[in-house]
């Protein structure tokens, strides 16, 4: 009798310690979430009020678990969203504090989205690079500083890395080229310096690479042109030097290319303007020289073609008047000369598209 009692008590104690397998998250996941919460302060919406009780898988705002293992799989907290709590509060999200390294104990985490909270500061915990299941890391729109974790390349399943609109400094870690699943890279509007890794072309799944508004130097890596899925490349507002690789014009799906406000020199590659899949091209505010290649045709379709503020010479190519469509054209602030071609692509353009050149004439400027 006595023995049975001891056994029962032991069994009960074991059950309590392990937790019931079907109800709720493991206490260790819950504890990690509570430490994460403790390092943040969200004064206006009260989203963390829901983070109470023992089952972190149920009704904890922004938290979801794997239905089978009950391990925490996603933390998705967006400071700008359609969720009614924002409408009710009549404002967008705001948080201070920092990202606790306790998150790194959530070793089944697949998504970490902590976006647009404006004032979360401190560094990105380097241990996040050790979360083997992480697919989405989106920390856009905060005040994070410090370096991108050097080991970031260990995240072999990562498809989205969005650290835009923060104050992240240092250089882009060389290991980044090992993110073999990466599709979307956004590091825009930070304080990154140094060169873009020359072997960035190893990111063969990448379709968007957005690195604008940093202090990046060095050339446009040629290897970038090997990324066959790349559709959107934005390197604008950096200090990138050298010439524009001609192979950029032969990329199969590239449709948006923003290289404006850099220190690029040399001529505009012919292939860039003859590529009919490229619809948005901004090369404004560089030191490009030579003529505008005369390679336009009936398939030319640019919603935006901005070549302003360079040192382009010669005349506006006649072939541009055969283009199927030119939405916004800006050739201002160069050294172009001669008659502006006549044709439907030019009908809607204003004088400002041609202003401040050496000797352009014809509609919409003065008659020749
Ligand atoms: C092209 O880039 C320039 C310089 O960065 C910028 O001022 C301009 O607004 C861009 N053009 C368009 C139409 O977005």
TrEMBL record:
The keyword Secreted does not apply. One of its GO terms (biological process) is response to other organism. Residues 1-24 form the signal peptide. Pfam families: LRR_1, LRR_14, LRRNT_2. It is found in: Membrane. Residues 27-66 form the Leucine-rich repeat-containing N-terminal plant-type domain. The keyword Signal applies. This is DNA damage-repair/toleration protein. It is a single-pass membrane protein. Its main location: membrane. Keywords: Glycoprotein, Leucine-rich repeat, Membrane, Repeat, Signal, Transmembrane, Transmembrane helix. Residues 102-207 form the Disease resistance R13L4/SHOC-2-like LRR domain. Belongs to the RLP family. PANTHER family: DNA DAMAGE-REPAIR/TOLERATION PROTEIN DRT100, DNA-DAMAGE-REPAIR_TOLERATION PROTEIN DRT100-LIKE. It comes from Sesamum alatum.
